[in-house]
Specification:
Length: 1057
């Protein structure tokens, strides 16, 4: 009986698991890819992750009060309770002459917004007893601020019957709640104060003639417009036999103007009645008329939509549009709803551009690999391995709760050049062994993976060591670093896993058994050129090793140059992008009316329409975006432009705003400027420098206003400043009413009646509420319009004195015109002026802030002025030292990992000494291009550190192995340089070409791609073309010192090979 044939399988000398079991290696990679692809569908999509600091808003109203009154009586008591809140960064309040107070409180990004809101709520409750009664009656509102604006919904009408008040209330009643229920919407807020209100418009002259006061009317309204429960007939306990229980009802809250007109103000014994209609009229109007919205010149109601954290911006916006289309079918004829202002096109376009760059990077990397490997089989291996790492990274992002955003996608673009390195290292070593040892692909793959496994693990660990510390930095910068760093770490770890499993299995299966050298054609020419390059490189390395002191001096010069550039390159927080929209702020002369403001808006809209790139113009009259306060002489305009691909030369946001600012500068009856909005929602109002000039010395308001103007004039002369503006105005005409308190008391007039009458008839008096359409609205008292137009109208306001005699307020008061602010801002408890500015081209925001600080110290500190920063500028200043700390920590971690890997305290220095070349290249690149050191540069610099260390590891690892085999130190260094040059150049140029699309990017998000692309491109170019000549020198010197320190025999230290 013949023996059974031996089982088929790999030859017995194959010891590596995944070469013996290639199906297992394939299954692991397929599972990773499938799960990653599934994760892509579940991950939220947004421009940036949720990185804006959590904020809480406090709103209160003191009707009739001046800005100074609101600041002193409302803002100050509340602000006094805020200091010491956990995670508090700063707080600022805007106190307006319409009696409103808005207080914004910003917390550290690590602080829970829910817990922060609870802390603020508790602090406000402590301050409430100190607030005026009118403020407590109106209520103090505390809201968790949502800064991630998704879109603006506009409701307009072609039918003149539907005015702005009708549209606002229709939007609030029938659209707002519906859109709030769309999954992913965090909040929907109807803009402006045109909500319904029952206005009791009184005739002061008629009231004086009939002896009626404002207090009489308010008392009558409170009594007769109230809910009056009346019980039930037949309720238990009831007599036996009771068969029915019937509720008893009566007229409660009134609903119609006629019912309010019938309110009895006074009844006499003879049966005569005095009703509201006898001294005025009740009308269904608006709570406030200090705001007007326009869309492309037509009266419009607006609603802001905010995105819920973690939601997919694109999907939510599309869902809103679908729901809006459904609701539009039920609108009255002539009313239509549109989305004129939308932030998602920039999100879509910028992410699409990064994805396109991702594909370009893969194509360029494939080209480099093919040129070096000269085999489609060998090229196919990394092209199969790279997608596994890239797609699998999305699974990691889903597990840790990240989103698909520009930061994670940037990380993946860089990761392509990084992860392909691991596969190339394996492939190149397999082909080298096949060519030099003449063994089949399977055996070569088995030997190769066991040779380079240590280097692969060292590369992965060193890259992880570089990026992991970045994830633990704090603040907004730390959150941005974390998104990038963790994505890179996931991709690198998966790349190492694939390089140790799938890549050797594919090498064993796909590589040819014999490798034929190309001698003709393009590849032949390339090989001959590369042989000359290799010979020249080895000769240069040998010459460097022959004169170590001279070349160490050259290294010292390069390090000094890197240090000089580090100090000279200006700093910034984040580059300003063309987002497809911008804003404008208009300021009319002091005391200008809302009607004048609307007239100016019409003129501005006229020259905006002359810009062919502009698509929609959203104008908000009566609202100041910079102070976030209501002012009748202010306006804010949001402008939406056409998509990037539809715009030609000279139609970028910077170009458009430059032309518009030129037109605005020529306006005589208004000041205005157009500006880019901040890159990260919630970080201030503008993308430039945002400072708070504080009155720390307690100067009178008029003196502080003069100092503010002096500061602005001086700041505009600074070298780094293109333009600076201040929003503080203290010369607004105000009518001061001086009440003769002694005379009032002598005539039996209560001071409260005097002030209450002034408030009610010159402003509005909130009495109580009424119900309409299932909602609750305010009942307010005010004087009819003709009685509140001139200072002389105060003479027609009467109060009741002793013996029920009516006397004019003018008999108890003196009036005079004074000047004061319409909006009084406070920052961290001090009266302040918001300073906004733009750095001059060629200068950065960091330079501008340093010069502003110097200006304060040299000229204004003695006057009691100080400066603080808010918004984006605060984060830039807070993160100014983070990059150096992260950089140093990363180097320390890399050193420790390599020390553990090589079991040596000295050898890691040979790797780390290669890092300064990459740093020099990174700084040189952005300096030559005129770019600042911003967050994207810092992220790119960390990447360059890791990759420069990787190049050094490839040489040092191989040289160490040769030295352990007894090869002399210098000869080991030269041999390692010769043998590792090809994989170093292959991996480095694959990375450099892979990121080159970032350097020349255009369209949405181009500025951030330029920043990170220039950094890594130039950094790796210098690290590769210059640094690799010095790595063998560092290895030789450090190895000699280490062996000399261990007192080894003289034969261990060799001279020339």
């Amino acid at each position: 009986m013949s023996a059974a044939p031996p089982p088929a399988g790999p030859p017995p000398e194959i010891r590596y698991l995944f070469i013996r079991r290639p199906v297992l290696a394939g299954v692991i990679s397929i599972v990773i890819t499938l799960l990653g692809g599934f994760a892509i569908r579940l991950l939220p999509l947004s421009r940036y992750p949720q990185i804006a600091p959590p904020a809480v808003q406090v709103a209160a109203a003191y009707p009739g009060a001046t800005a100074q009154d609101v600041a002193d009586a409302v803002a100050a008591p509340i602000e006094e309770q805020l200091s010491g809140l956990q995670g508090l960064l700063y707080y600022s309040s805007a106190n307006a002459s319409d009696g409103t107070m808005g207080l914004a409180i910003s917390f550290d990004v690590t602080r829970s917004q829910d817990l922060a809101a609870v802390d603020v709520q508790n602090a406000v409750q402590v301050a409430v007893p100190q607030l005026p009664d009118a403020v407590r009656q109106n209520g103090v509102v505390i809201l968790k601020a949502n800064t991630d604006i998704l879109a603006v919904v506009a409701l307009s009408s072609s039918d003149p019957r539907y005015d702005a008040s009708y549209l606002t209330n229709y939007l609030k009643l029938f659209v707002e709640d519906e859109l709030k229920r769309v999954p992913g919407i965090g909040n929907a807020l109807t803009f402006g104060g045109l909500q319904f209100s029952m206005l009791l418009q009184l005739d002061p002259a008629r009231m004086a003639k009939l002896g009626v006061t404002v207090g009489d009317v308010a008392t009558a309204v409170r009594e007769q417009n109230a809910t009056n429960p009346a019980g039930r007939i037949g309720r238990e306990p009831a007599p036996p036999g009771t068969e029915l229980t019937i509720p008893v009802t009566t007229l409660g809250r009134l609903q119609t103007p006629d019912q309010f007109n019938d309110i009895v103000v006074r009844a006499k014994a003879d049966g005569s009645l005095l009703r509201v209609r006898d001294i005025g009229r009740a009308v269904l109007g608006a709570q406030s008329y200090d705001f007007a919205g326009r869309l492309n010149g037509k009266p419009t109601a607006f609603m802001l939509l905010y995105l819920r954290p973690g939601a997919n911006a694109i999907a939510v916006r599309n869902a809103v549009q679908r729901r809006l289309d459904e609701l539009s079918r039920g609108f009255p004829p002539g009313i239509s709803a549109v989305i004129p202002f939308d932030t998602t096109p920039f999100v879509t376009a910028s992410i699409k551009e990064v994805v396109f760059t991702l594909l370009e990077a893969m194509a360029l990397v494939s080209l480099v690999v093919f040129v070096f490997l000269q085999s489609w089989r060998a090229t196919l291996i990394p092209m199969l391995a790279v997608p596994v790492s890239v797609i699998g990274t999305f699974l990691g992002l889903l597990v840790i709760g990240f989103s698909i955003n520009v930061l994670t996608l940037f990380a993946l673009v860089l990761a392509i050049g990084i992860v392909v390195d691991d596969a190339i290292v394996v492939i190149e070593n397999v082909e080298r062994i096949m060519a030099t040892e003449d063994v089949p692909a399977r055996i070569a793959a088995d030997r190769a993976i066991r040779q380079v496994a240590g280097a692969l693990i060292a590369i992965v660990l060193s890259l992880v060591a570089v990026f992991v510390p970045v994830a633990f930095t704090g603040g907004v910068t730390g959150e941005m670093f974390k998104q990038f760093a963790i994505t890179i770490v996931i991709a690198v770890v998966l790349s190492g896993l694939v390089a140790l499993t799938l890549t050797p299995a594919l090498c064993a299966l796909l590589l040819k058994e014999a490798v034929e050298a190309h001698t003709g054609g393009f590849f032949g020419a390339f090989n001959r050129w590369f042989a000359r390059v290799t010979g020249g490189y080895v000769g240069a390395v040998d010459r460097v090793l022959g004169r170590p002191r001279a070349w160490l001096g050259a290294v010292a010069v390069l390090v000094i140059l890197a240090g000089v550039l580090w100090r000279r390159v200006p700093t910034a927080f984040i580059p300003s992008e063309d987002k497809g929209y911008f804003a404008m702020a208009l300021q009319l002369p002091d005391a200008a009316s809302l009607q004048r403001t609307q007239a100016v808006i019409e003129r501005v809209e006229g020259f905006l329409r002359q810009e062919p790139a502009i698509r929609n113009i959203v104008a908000l009259a009566g609202f100041d975006l910079l102070s976030r306060a209501s002012q009748p002489n202010s306006a804010t305009i949001f402008v939406n432009v056409r998509p990037w691909e539809e715009r030609g030369p000279g139609q970028s946001i910077d170009a458009i705003t430059g032309r518009i600012n030129g037109r605005l500068f020529g306006m005589r009856d208004a000041m205005g400027f157009a500006f880019n909005l901040p890159e990260i929602p919630g970080l201030g109002a503008t993308s430039g420098v945002e400072a708070q000039l504080q009155n720390r010395g307690g100067l009178p308001v008029q003196d502080f206003a003069r100092e503010v103007q002096a500061f602005v004039q001086a700041a505009n002369q600074l070298p780094a400043v293109l333009g600076v503006n201040a929003n503080f105005r203290a010369n607004v005409p105000q009518l001061y009413v001086d009440v003769d308190r002694a005379a009032a008391k002598a005539r039996g007039v209560k001071l409260g009646d005097v002030f209450g009458t002034l408030q009610a008839l010159m402003s509005t008096l909130y009495v109580n509420d009424f119900n309409l359409y299932g909602r609750t609205y305010r009942v307010q008292i005010e004087a009819q319009a003709p009685y509140r137009q001139t200072p002389e109208d105060l003479g027609q306001l009467y109060v009741r004195g002793s013996n029920d005699a009516m006397m004019p307020i003018s008999a108890l008061t003196r009036t005079q015109f004074k000047s004061g602010p319409t909006v009084l801002t406070r920052f961290n408890g001090f009266t302040s002026a918001l300073i906004t500015g733009v750095p001059r081209p060629g200068h950065s925001s960091g330079e501008m802030m340093n010069q502003l600080d110097g200006l304060i110290r040299s000229r204004f500190a003695a006057e009691g002025l100080g400066i603080s920063y808010s918004g984006q500028s605060y984060q830039e200043r807070a993160s100014s030292g983070a990059a150096g700390l992260v950089f140093a920590l990363g180097l320390v971690i890399v050193f420790l990992v390599l020390a553990a890997q090589y079991e040596s305290w000295s050898l890691p220095f040979a790797v780390l000494f290669g890092v300064p070349f990459g740093v020099l290249g990174a700084f040189l690149g952005i300096w030559l291009r005129g770019q600042p050191s911003d967050i994207y540069f810092q992220v790119g610099l960390i990447t360059v550190v890791g990759l420069a260390a990787k190049n050094a590891i490839l040489i040092v690892e191989f040289a160490t192995e040769l030295r352990s085999q007894g090869v002399p130190i210098r000869q080991a260094a030269v041999q390692a340089a010769r043998q590792r040059l090809r994989p170093i150049l292959m991996t480095s140029f694959a990375f450099i070409l892979g990121v080159s699309p970032l350097v020349v990017a255009g369209g949405a998000g181009a500025a951030s791609r330029h920043s990170i692309g220039t950094t890594v491109f130039s950094g790796m170019l210098i690290a590769t073309t210059v640094g690799i000549f010095f790595i063998p020198l560092f290895f030789t010197l450090i190895r000699r010192l280490a062996e000399r320190g261990r007192a080894e025999t003289p034969s261990a230290v060799e001279g020339r090979p």
